[in-house]
């Protein structure tokens, strides 16, 4: 665990350096380093618990229980008379790094042994191509001497001749031991990849009464470890890569034999489900290829297709049972909050390892409040405006306390919250930041580097106001149902007014409309109702609150049929956008209507507020980028930039003049060299088939001819171009 923690901290350090070195000059960056950069925004990184590397043995218990297992490994003591011999695999298949971890495991076990000539004696062998005695059991009489000698062991290499080492012990016994007058324990630390037979030799050792522990290292071959180990195998097969867990397992087994004892009488050894993992090379069918084989007749060759295979390495998992000792302790009440780690100090004391921004708090109780109130200090300098302030949260574990309220107060301090964490905490990070757009998720610790460009972009790039004179037909759809309430509806109105301020409202650039829905859908004002921004803002303030049970699907169909149409002011060849703001129920029936709008060339963005039906909203939003989740109505103001940026990004997409169709009364829209032509059905004429033809006068008045496709070309049919289209 210590090695994994160090590796991850090193990755994180490089991540910060990458961000600092490449951050654009418009950001001011504040971090607790010997010297720090003054750029355009201030960022504080909160480090919560870091994820460990993939374990080759996983005990299926809670993190609290894993902590208890680790603590109990330091609280057991072995003082009964016994001989313990470590047999360490020093072959090339193990490698020098894993050999060093084997030594670390042996040293950790020695910390729990009362080493003396009368009580516990310890010796060590190393084996590769040949067994080599490092020191006999009667060489050293103190724990410090034994540990020092284990540290001085040098990796030899060679083949994995486990059988030779076992045969040597069968012939000569434990060197320096007490000839079986006290219990004997053999601790074999190996990868289980012996180049000879070991089953019979291990059986003979166990028949002599020797307790055999098989401890895996690197990617062990678990089947061989089980062959080596004493019965019951689940109590004698361990993994040295997880030192504290393996030490606990070994001492727990010796405790059951009354050779060791826990520090407290209420400590108990229990069985837990676990999994053993290892890398295996497997063969799989890759395909077939032409080949030739001999036919039954000697002078014939048979052409056929023969299979060919590929080999790959896969990580396989095998269910198992692990026996571990746990003791009740001071951390049982979970005193450390906000991702703080509780470290037991004996049975009745503890201390908390808190993330960096807690200011020395004993139990880590207020990370977000601390960073909002103390993290930035006096950032504004005399004569200068306050720079943008950013908080970047890095975590992989869920918070142990409520986060929505503190996160909302942080955003109320005009702080931008960004979060980087594992997939398991995505939902909580979205609640903390107030938006999925402010959350970055990684799968493994090494993936942190791949998130550097995304983090830099979020830190450096600020959306520009409006879309720089690009034409947009924009409809805001507000949830005015009883589940929202009049006060929250008023905050929705304020939000869309603020968004409308970012656009140049006039008939040639941006047209804005507003629809509300509750028990029914109602057009507050259409696209062509108000020609100036001031008029749009006044009309938004007068939008009615409806109440009743809302239906988002009904409201979207209302927009499709009666709002986003040519006769109601929609302009052909112009981007069409619907921004739906909802905080209540009623989204279950909206997925199909939303898709109908998108299929007609109308972009749909969903802004969901508060405890909404997330699955239904995600289906409604369609693509992942078409959903903005906001924690509370008061936080809508912090998502205006994200909404404007989304609309402007949509405005860059090519526009089809015939989607949605500008032709009325089932007329057919035909694209013609940068414009379009409406083919009208019988009985209609005009540029958009908007005029009815009087009976008896149709042929004379229209001077039209029948189209082979069933429509009519009329003198009124024409190529049309509109403002905002490239051809205009």
From TrEMBL:
Question: Which molecular function terms from Gene Ontology are attached?
Answer: calcium ion binding
Source species, domain of life: Eukaryota
Question: Keywords in UniProt for this one?
Answer: Disulfide bond, EGF-like domain, Repeat, Signal
Residue ranges of the VWFA domain? Answer: 83-254, 359-459, 473-647
Task: List the InterPro entries.
Answer: ECM_Assembly_Org, EGF, EGF-like_Ca-bd_dom, EGF-like_CS, VWF_A, vWFA_dom_sf
Does the keyword Flavoprotein belong to this entry?
A: no
Annotated region described as Disordered, given as residue ranges: 698-728
> Which CDD domains does the entry mention?
EGF, EGF_CA
Q: Which SUPFAM superfamilies match?
A: EGF/Laminin, vWA-like
For this protein, the record's Gene3D superfamilies field holds: Laminin (2.10.25.10), von Willebrand factor, type A domain (3.40.50.410)
Q: Tell me, what's a Pfam family for it?
A: EGF
Q: Which cysteines are joined by disulfide bonds?
A: 680-689
Which PROSITE patterns does the protein's record reference? EGF_1, EGF_2, EGF_3, VWFA
Please report the stretch or stretches of sequence annotated as the EGF-like domain: 328-365, 654-690
Q: What is this protein called?
A: von Willebrand factor A domain-containing protein 2 isoform X7
The opening ranks of the lineage are: Eukaryota, Metazoa, Chordata, Craniata, Vertebrata
């Amino acid at each position: 665990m210590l090695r994994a923690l160090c590796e991850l901290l090193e990755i994180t350090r490089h991540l910060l350096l990458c961000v600092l070195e490449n951050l654009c000059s418009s950001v001011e960056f504040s971090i607790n380093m010997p010297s720090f950069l003054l750029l355009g925004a201030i960022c504080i990184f909160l480090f919560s618990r870091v994820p460990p590397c993939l374990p080759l043995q996983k005990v299926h218990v809670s993190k609290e229980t894993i902590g208890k297992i680790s603590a109990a490994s330091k609280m057991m003591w072995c003082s009964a008379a016994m001989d313990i011999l470590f047999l360490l695999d020093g072959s090339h298949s193990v490698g020098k790094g894993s050999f060093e971890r084997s030594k670390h495991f042996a040293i950790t076990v020695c910390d729990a042994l009362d080493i003396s000539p009368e009580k516990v004696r310890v010796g060590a062998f190393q084996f590769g191509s040949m067994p080599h005695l490092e020191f006999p059991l009667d060489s050293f009489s103190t724990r410090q001497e034994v540990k020092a000698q284990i540290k001085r062991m040098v990796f030899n290499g060679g083949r994995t001749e486990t059988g030779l080492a076992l045969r040597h012990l069968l012939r000569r016994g434990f060197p320096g031991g007490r000839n079986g007058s006290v219990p004997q324990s053999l601790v074999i630390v190996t990868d289980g990849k012996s180049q000879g037979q070991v089953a019979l030799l291990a059986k003979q050792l166990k028949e002599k009464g020797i307790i055999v522990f098989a401890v895996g290292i690197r990617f062990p071959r678990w089947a061989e470890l089980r062959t080596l180990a004493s019965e019951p195998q689940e109590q004698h097969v361990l993994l040295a890569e997880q030192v504290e867990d393996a030490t606990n397992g070994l001492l727990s087994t010796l405790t059951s034999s009354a050779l060791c004892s826990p520090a407290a009488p209420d400590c108990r050894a229990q069985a837990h489900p676990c999994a053993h993992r290892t890398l295996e090379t497997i063969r799989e069918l890759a395909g077939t290829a032409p080949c030739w084989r001999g036919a039954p007749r000697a002078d014939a060759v048979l052409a056929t297709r023969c299979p060919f295979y590929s080999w790959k390495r896969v990580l396989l998992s095998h269910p198992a049972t692990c026996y571990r000792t746990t003791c009740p302790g001071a951390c049982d009440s979970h005193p450390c909050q906000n991702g703080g780690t509780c470290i037991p100090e004996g049975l009745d004391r503890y201390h908390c390892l808190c993330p960096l921004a807690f200011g020395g708090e004993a139990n880590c109780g207020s990370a977000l409040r601390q960073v909002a109130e103390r993290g930035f200090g006096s950032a504004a300098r005399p004569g200068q405006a306050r720079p943008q302030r950013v908080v970047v949260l890095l975590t992989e574990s869920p918070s142990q306390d409520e986060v929505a309220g503190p996160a909302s107060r942080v955003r109320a301090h005009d702080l931008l919250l960004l979060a980087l964490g594992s997939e398991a905490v995505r939902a909580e990070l979205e609640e903390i930041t107030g938006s999925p757009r402010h959350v970055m998720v990684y799968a493994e610790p090494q993936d942190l580097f791949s998130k550097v460009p995304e983090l830099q972009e979020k830190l450096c790039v600020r959306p520009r106001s409006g879309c720089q004179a690009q034409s947009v037909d924009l409809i805001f759809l507000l949830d005015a149902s009883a589940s929202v309430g009049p006060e929250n509806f008023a905050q929705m109105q304020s939000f869309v007014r603020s968004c409308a301020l970012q656009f140049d409202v006039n008939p040639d650039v941006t047209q804005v409309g507003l629809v509300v829905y509750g028990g029914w859908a109602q057009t507050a004002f259409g696209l062509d109702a108000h020609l100036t921004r001031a008029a749009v803002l006044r009309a938004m303030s007068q939008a009615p609150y409806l109440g009743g049970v809302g239906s988002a699907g009904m409201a979207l169909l209302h927009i499709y049929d009666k709002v986003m149409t040519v006769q109601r002011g929609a302009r052909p060849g112009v981007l069409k956008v619907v921004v739906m703001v909802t905080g209540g129920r009623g989204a279950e029936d909206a997925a199909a209507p939303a898709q109908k709008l998108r299929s007609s060339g109308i972009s749909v963005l969903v802004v969901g507020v508060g405890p909404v039906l997330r699955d239904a909203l995600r289906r409604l939003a369609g693509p992942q980028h078409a959903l903005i989740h906001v924690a509370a109505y008061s936080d809508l103001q912090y998502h205006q930039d994200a909404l404007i940026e989304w609309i402007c990004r949509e405005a860059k997409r090519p526009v089809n003049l015939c989607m949605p169709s500008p032709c009325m009364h089932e007329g057919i829209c035909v694209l013609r060299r940068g414009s379009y032509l409406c083919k009208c059905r019988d009985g209609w004429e005009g540029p958009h088939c908007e005029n009815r033809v009087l009976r008896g006068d149709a042929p004379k008045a229209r001077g039209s001819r029948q189209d082979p496709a069933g429509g009519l070309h009329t003198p009124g049919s024409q190529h049309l171009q509109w403002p905002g289209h490239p051809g205009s």
